[in-house]
Design brief:
82% helix
């Protein structure tokens, strides 16, 4: 009948995951350019 709530939850979490991955990618790029790779790995 209607879209299951679980499916809606999955699409929302997928969007959130994409945003998190984008932010992490930016952080990693900044960290590697400023040679603070060790601190990034400890955070992750």
């Amino acid at each position: 009948m209607s879209v299951p709530s679980q499916e809606i939850g999955w699409s929302v979490s997928a969007k959130l995951l994409r945003e998190i991955i984008k932010k992490l990618d930016e952080i990693i790029k900044i960290a590697s350019s400023s040679s603070t790779v060790t601190t990034t790995t400890t955070i992750l």
